[in-house]
Automatic annotation (TrEMBL):
This is NF2, moesin-ezrin-radixin like (MERLIN) tumor suppressor b. A 1,2-diacyl-sn-glycero-3-phospho-(1D-myo-inositol) binds at residues 68-71, 287. GO terms for molecular function: actin binding. Residues 315-464, 518-552 form a coiled coil. It is found in: Cell membrane. Its main location: membrane. SUPFAM superfamilies: Moesin tail domain, PH domain-like, Second domain of FERM, Ubiquitin-like. Pfam families: ERM_C (PF00769), ERM_helical (PF20492), FERM_C (PF09380), FERM_M (PF00373), FERM_N (PF09379). The gene is nf2b. It comes from Parambassis ranga.
Length: 590
């Protein structure tokens, strides 16, 4: 067995894992492949044609390096792991993203890389710009804002802001989400590629955008500095300030860049300016700086030239693609609008249908209620008709009662008139009787006075006659005349007695007449009292009849209030018996 046979067979392929910003890919590569072969394979797989911005980066001894296209992959200082891991990243950045980035995939990869650098704080971004960039990132991911779909908390799982910004303000995640959503709602109608381009247009104005920083010293004993390499040129920074460079060398002003081991030399185009030298401690870093400087300078010069046929074709295709996508988006937007309108119309029709169904249901219910109401009204109408007939009958009875009461009232009025006439006659008779009584009383008083006077005169005459008879008459008879015969004396005495008897008969006659008149007066008074009692009884009976008539009239009027067509007969009765009662009292007193 030969020594060659003892040796292991060398594998003809090796495994490679390439990590892009949004995917991971594994390839089986041939041993003889150069870096360009692997890079072209990745670009073809991704569909990238703007290859000059990108490269394959790997980690080596705590720093990173870019895979060189002209050397074999395995001959470079790549990790010995299997598979070998590479990161497909943007190596050079454009000056104006809107003009230089042609393909949508190129824009998308730049967007993802710049977004990660901002969130990892490799690129400084103010809080206001961070919120705005986050809103465009949300628009690129979720599309147009829909409050019905994008409920509060839908961004809870997304990393959108740098931790430095979150720690800088005492705000909750909900408050940050509210701010981002406010901007996000204003981006309605922006497509994903447009949102990503807007994101890059804002990011390219940041001070640290596209800058690669390296630690350097101006001389071997000087303080540390930072060298920044970007699409504009070279910049010198203080270690604690990566935003504002202390000195800048634009590519247009650099004539030559060279290095010897650890020393770099920048020769300005203007020979009057001093040559700038700086030092780097690692040879690998120096090679990387030189590689970035050459690549950025080449792109800088390329931008100032007319685009190649390939780039022109790419731009034309990209323009056509954008126009086509724009047209498709417009068509899609119209279709979406039409679909939304159709959905709204459908919803409106469904709502209208439900409304009509509700209206039909309500109408049916109303119809049923109407039928029930109609039946009820029919029953009520029948009852009302019966009540009307009953009321008509009662009204007829009431009319008869009213006529009867009118007749009764007329009779009552006639009786009242007759009674008033009797009262007046009785009053006149009473007045006459009173006058006669007073006159008789006066006559009786006069007669009594005359009788008393006559009695007094008779008594005085008798007394005087007796006196005269006893004293003077015997003397005169004895001395002046002859004695009369006894017959003459007796005659004189009889004449005197006759005169006295005549007076006594008159008095008796007068007394008898007075007694007779008194008896007649008593009889008339008794007769008048009887008439007054009869009149009082008649008035009481009239009162009772009047009360009964009032009760009948009240019942008739109450029936009219319930629907009878009957006019009440009202007979006034207040104070109408006052004159009668006063007269009765007067007669009773008399």
């Amino acid at each position: 067995m030969s020594i060659l046979g003892l040796k292991k067979k060398q594998p003809k392929t090796f495994k490679v894992k390439v990590i892009t910003m949004d995917a991971e890919m594994e390839f089986s590569c041939e041993v003889k492949w150069k870096g360009k072969d692997l890079f072209d394979l990745v670009c073809r797989t991704v569909g990238l044609r703007e290859t000059w911005f990108f490269g394959l980066r790997y980690i080596v001894k705590d720093t990173y390096a870019w895979l060189k296209p002209e050397k074999r992959v395995l001959e470079q200082e790549v990790p010995k792991d299997s598979p070998i891991t590479f990161h497909f990243l943007a190596k050079f950045f454009p000056e104006k993203v809107e003009e230089e980035l042609v393909q949508e995939i190129t824009q998308h990869l730049f967007f993802l890389q710049v977004k990660k650098q901002i969130l990892d704080e490799e690129i400084f971004c103010s809080p206001e710009a961070s919120v705005l960039l986050a809103s465009y990132a949300v628009q690129a991911k979720y599309g147009d804002y829909d409050p019905n779909f994008h409920k509060p908390g839908f961004l809870a799982q997304d990393e959108l802001l740098p931790k430095r910004v979150l720690m800088q303000y005492q705000m909750t995640a909900d408050m940050w989400e509210e701010k981002i959503t406010a901007w996000y709602a204003e981006h309605r109608g922006i497509a994903r590629d447009e949102a990503e381009m807007e994101y890059l247009k804002i990011a390219q104005d940041l001070e640290m955008y596209g800058v690669s920083y390296f630690a350097i010293t101006q001389n071997k004993r000087d303080t540390d500095l930072l060298l920044g390499v970007d699409a504009q040129g070279l910049h010198i920074y203080s270690p604690n300030n990566k935003l504002n460079p202390n000195k800048s060398f634009p590519w247009s002003g650099i004539r030559n860049i060279s290095y010897s081991e650890k020393e770099f030399t920048i020769k300005p185009l203007d020979k009057k300016k001093d040559v700038f030298k700086f030092y780097s401690s690692q040879l690998r870093v120096n090679k990387l700086i030189l590689q970035l400087c050459i690549g950025n300078h080449d792109l800088f010069m390329r931008r100032r030239k007319v685009d190649s046929i390939e780039v022109q074709q790419m731009k034309a295709q990209a323009k056509e693609e954008k126009a086509r996508k724009k047209m498709e988006r417009q068509i899609l937007a119209r279709e979406k609008q039409m679909r939304e309108e159709a959905e709204r119309a459908k919803e409106e029709m469904e709502r209208r249908l439900f409304q009509l169904q509700d209206e039909a249901r309500l109408a049916n219910e109303a119809l049923l209620r109407s039928e029930e109401t109609a039946d009820l009204l029919a029953e009520k109408a029948q009852i009302a008709e019966e009540e009307a007939k009953l009321l008509a009958h009662k009204a007829a009875e009431a009319e008869q009662e009213r006529q009867r009461l009118e007749v009764t009232a007329m009779k009552t009025k006639e009786e009242k008139r007759l009674m008033e006439q009797k009262m007046r006659e009785a009053e006149q008779l009473a007045v006459k009787l009173v006058e006669q009584s007073e006159r008789r009383l006066k006559e009786a008083d006069h007669l009594k006075q005359d009788l008393t006077e006559a009695k007094d005169a008779e008594r005085r005459a008798k007394q005087k006659l007796l006196e005269i008879t006893k004293t003077t008459y015997p003397l005169i008879a004895a001395y002046s005349a002859p004695p009369a015969p006894p017959e003459a004396a007796d005659f004189a005495y009889e004449s005197t007695s006759t005169r006295l008897d005549f007076k006594d008969s008159d008095m008796k006659r007068l007394s008898m007449e007075i007694e007779r008149e008194r008896l007649e007066y008593m009889e008339k008074s008794k007769h008048l009292q009887d008439q007054l009692k009869e009149l009082k009884s008649e008035i009481e009976s009239l009162k009772l009849e009047e009360q009964q008539q009032q009760a009948g009239l009240y019942s008739v009027s109450h029936s009219e209030a319930r629907g009878y067509v009957q006019e009440p007969v009202y007979i006034p009765h207040s104070n109408r018996n006052s004159a009668y009662m006063s007269q009765m009292a007067y007669f009773e007193e008399v």
